[in-house]
């Protein structure tokens, strides 16, 4: 069985579950249904989540099981949290402070551009 797509192939909007069917008797239900937040994860992300849960949150165990370095295991877990909407919000850059730092010479214009575009 193939995983259900999570985004529209035409406009890239998030798809909604609107129809459910019983393979046993053929009954169908139509409406808008809440979608599983884990169902749209990639196979790699689901594996990371499963290993994390099985190891009771121990990233060293995740590292060993996946055969990756600790920083890679941590990066995969951070990406997983972001995809689930549980990650840390990105810090807000104070535009006025960045411009003041450029004017005073504390940072270069290139550094300011990088800060303001992220």
UniProtKB/TrEMBL annotation:
Signal peptide: none annotated. Residues 8-39, 41-86 form the DUF2089 domain. InterPro entries: DUF2089, DUF2089_Zn_ribbon. It comes from the Bacteria. This is DUF2089 domain-containing protein.
